[in-house]
Write a structure and sequence with these properties.
OB fold (Dihydrolipoamide Acetyltransferase, E2P), flat, mainly beta, SH3 type barrels, six-stranded antiparallel β-sheet
């Protein structure tokens, strides 16, 4: 049994007869009254996100997990196929387990979190950022760069990202996988 002081991002807990992963938390100590922890929990079975507040010292039921490195092979409908990089076992995971499936490129390495009790995969941790090639975007209009103007661009995985006006087709861009936003242009 863990308590609220053990809460951290990525911690998997049992809560309301389901397994949740903590994706955000904030310890709050108000001037008046007891301390508490505000959390954002993501269900690992259906992908729903809920906000919850735990009072300080509240006991939480931690789920023991293992992380393994897997390589993304291909997508087939809503199933995504991965291969363990050490023993080459293959697994298929549903699309709703993934945080950003539209940013996943074939051959990309991810960390798969599995429950040690049941051996079932719980979630997939994407790398912090991915580099993808822009396959389609409208040309930027010259002289329209005084503000932080953006335009939509389609990348090689099919995802649509807002990018600055100077980005052209064929450019490689770095994308933050947590927020799904443009970070920078990558030079070769």
């Amino acid at each position: 049994m863990a308590s609220t002081s053990d809460i951290r991002n990525g911690l998997c807990i049992k809560y309301n007869h389901d397994i949740y992963k903590i994706i955000e938390f904030l310890h709050v100590k108000p001037g008046k009254g007891p301390a508490f922890v505000r959390t954002k929990l993501k269900s690992l079975t259906n992908g729903k996100v809920l906000d919850n507040t735990f009072s300080a010292g509240h006991k939480i039921d931690e789920v023991r997990v293992e992380t393994h490195k897997y390589q993304f092979l291909y997508a087939e409908g809503d199933l995504f196929h991965f291969m363990h990089v050490e023993d080459f076992n293959q697994i298929s995971l549903d699309k709703n387990i993934l945080d950003a499936p539209d940013l996943l490129k074939e051959g990309e390495n991810v960390m798969v979190i599995t429950n040690t009790e049941t051996g079932l995969p719980l979630s997939v941790d994407m790398p912090a950022s991915v580099v993808l090639e822009v396959t389609y975007t409208e040309p930027g209009v010259k002289g329209n760069t005084a503000t932080n103007a953006t335009k939509p661009a389609k990348v090689e995985t099919g995802a649509e990202i807002n990018v600055p006006l100077f980005i052209n087709e064929g450019d490689k861009i770095k994308i933050d996988t947590a927020k799904g936003v443009y970070l920078e242009r990558v030079k070769e």
